Amino acid sequence: MSATTEHPAPAASRHALPDPGEGIPAISWPIVGIFSGAIAVFAFATWAALTDALPVPVTVLLSATAIFVLFTVLHDAAHYSVSTRRWVNVAFGRVAMLFVSPLISFKSFAFIHIEHHRNTNDGENDPDHFVSGAPLWQLPVRFALMDVPYLAFLVRNMRRRPRAEVLETSFLLVMSAAVIVACAVTGHLWTLAVLYLIPARVAMIVLAWWFDWLPHHDLEDTQQENRYRATRNRVGSEWILTPLLLSQNYHLVHHLHPSIPFHRYVAAWRRNEEAYLERDAAIGTVFGQQLDTDEYREWKRLNGSLARLLPVRMPKRSSARAAVFHPVRVTGVDRLTDDSVLIRFDVPDDLREEFSFESGQHVTVRTDLGGEGVRRNYSICSSATSDTLAIAVKHIPGGAFSTFAMEQLQVGDTLDLMTPTGSFGTPLDPLASKNYVAIAAGSGITPILSILRTTLAVETDSRFTLIYGNRDADSTMFRDELDDIEARYADRLRIIHVRSRDPRHPAHLRGRVDRPKLEQWLGSDLPVASVDEWFLCGPVEMVTDLRELLIERGAEPDRVHVELFHGYQKPKVADEFSPATVAVKLRGRQHEVSLAAGDTVLESALTAGLEAPYACLGGACGTCKAKILQGSVTMEHNFALSPTDVAAGHVLTCQAHPTSEEVRLDYDA
Ligand code: FES
């Protein structure tokens, strides 16, 4: 989601804050603990550096870690949350300040930091905006110089500050300069650099990054406008991030309740989570994906314990050993266009694992129509990161199932649904940064929609271009949904609509998605070399033509993924093939069937009464995939398996004719 999405301040944001349920302790023992530990580490690193007991990078790292930890002591002291006794906070704050930045007095730091809280994200008045509002390329330098804007801010506001505080800061500045000059003159500048100057800058970089940039960058609301959206929480991987960032992954809680000690942020969030969500709290994931309230709720519910590790629920394939039918209730039948409907299914909890799917997969629907069993294969159009299983059915004149779906199917009906199969999509990696292009025509959008939504949700750095051909706007399936997704992922998604019968559509995007049009895109803004994966889904002619062109232009065949509406249906070829014996492993059981000359492996299995999986019978859907363990077959057509699948011994049994007398294959492999 674009970080610049507008979020009008909800009425609730102006209401009283929820009670955090966390008070200021008489003394915060965790702060005492990290303070003591950090001082001990710093002392040890100093001794190690002075005696050459450890390599310089190790002592620098140890000292930097100690300074980083001492900032949390300073920070909590500035908010008077170390203890209910004021002097205790001042004492901890003054000592910690000497380590973090001896250029500024504790009181001055506390003043400047509170101004940050009052004016968060206000470019004029937020001293931390030096970092959180900086262009990316300047960040390393600004991170390292984070105390400079603090000093500048203090100079600008000197008149507002007590004389004693200004004098203390001036004294510290002079003393700091004097120590550096003295070390330089006496030849000890390198020692000072190793003991303090370098570790302090390393710590400053990490502090600016984790305390300022991560919680505030790219948020447009200021504290005054909407305090729930001026700072964000970063959810996921808490098991490592909370101790590593000393709870600043829940920085929003700190900005809402600055007096809570750092180690209670997560508890306060959990206690009031619903209240914060009602106020549209800003939330991002570890990997930078911005979540609105509904997305966060779904993310949390779906991920369960995995939420600690992953940015979204990772898609996974069905746990079924071989595709199998289950009766599943229909929970939604919604018109998409005049001639298509969206069907949603209510997968029972005990079948969730069997019906989990990866984007680009499909399901076969089976039902009885007028005493005749019909089965059709449809791509899943819902995101594989959601728990919704939905397909879209386009009406085919005379088509038995599509006519039934358009005219009779109702919420509450039950259909036999085969567990998901197919491998049109590609594996996703939350850390990948790839460029995807999909070309779809008509109802070819259904698997593409699932791939597009899933990819953008899982890979938050990847980009996607969709070229989508239709007659006109009214016949475009998922038109509103695509507009929404494009607005939401405006920085990473581009949709190009091509229309064949819309005279008002831009001339260069009129007509069909064909070879000349793709040639133009390849020659301008979509050069083959810039694209990592191609997805093509639509009529046979379009898909085969465009695939050929991409491969001619240098695309690797493995990177061009195709899915067809229908395979080729070919007359029987009895003369070309001999009979054979086929040993079939299906759902863990072994069977032996006789195959008549010209039959496919699938036909022989079905004739023998086996419940072998299939759908399109045309080599397009991949439902009938099995692995050859012994013997050999030849396929008439293959529009579903990748070269890698074929090299691994997989075949489409609906297209496979034995070329050896005996064949052994496994549907479960
Ligand atoms: S049944 Fe569709 S490819 Fe074989």
Short description:
It is built from 20 helices and 21 strands. By secondary structure, the protein is an alpha/beta fold. The chain folds into five domains: 205 residues, no CATH class; 83 residues, no CATH class; 94 residues, Translation factors (Elongation Factor Tu (Ef-tu), domain 3, Beta Barrel); 130 residues, Nucleotide-binding domain of ferredoxin-NADP reductase (FNR) module (Rossmann fold, 3-Layer(aba) Sandwich), CATH 3.40.50.80; 93 residues, Beta-grasp domain (Ubiquitin-like (UB roll), Roll).
Describe the structure.
With 669 residues, this protein is α/β, with parallel strands linked by helices. It has 5 domains: 26-230, no CATH class; 231-313, no CATH class; 325-418, Translation factors (Elongation Factor Tu (Ef-tu), domain 3, Beta Barrel); 435-564, Rossmann fold; 574-666, Roll (Ubiquitin-like (UB roll)). It is 37% helix and 19% strand. The strands form 5 sheets. Strands 7-6-9-4-5-8 form a 6-stranded antiparallel sheet, with helices on one face. Bound molecules: FE2/S2 (inorganic) cluster. FE2/S2 (inorganic) cluster (FES) binds at residues 614-617, 619-624, 640, 652, 654.
Which key terms come to mind for this protein?
669 residues, elongated, Elongation Factor Tu (Ef-tu), domain 3, 6-stranded antiparallel sheet, single chain, 5 domains
